[in-house]
Amino acid sequence: MHKRNLLLDFMLLITFLMIMSPSLTGVPWHEWLAIGLTAAIILHLLLHWEWIVRIGATFFRKIFHHSRLKFVVDVLLFVAFTLTMTSGLLISRSVLPTLGIQSTRSPLWRGLHDLTANLTLSLVGLHFALNWEWVVGMFRRYALNPIIRAFQTSKAAAIKENPRSSTPQ
Q: Which InterPro entries match (predicted)?
């Protein structure tokens, strides 16, 4: 479960950073990646649904705790991302026209899209920072530790094959 969460979170972060630069991907890829990102975020929320319900139910029971701050940031992130996606779809130059739907050219929606996208970027950074200990722990467990174990195993095998090479001359 943790490994799947780590891989999904890594994919979400990389995709989000790519989307934040439409000049890097081009507008069509920007829009289609955003739709894929939305589906992946829904999966992310479903995987964390028990935590969302548990913290939401106990939100007002204590004066302050770390989970409450994370919950508030996550709710703000959800609202900002939802506004970004909604406004992005409304001003779409690729996805909606491909589906035969006329999009709007309203500067209001364009401005809202830019504002909420930048707010989302800030909140993603804060979300990442608040979950940093988990990220580091999972990275150690699933990336660094296997590499270290593989190195130690290969070193032990080399010493076993040639014991003289491990003793100083």
A: DUF4405
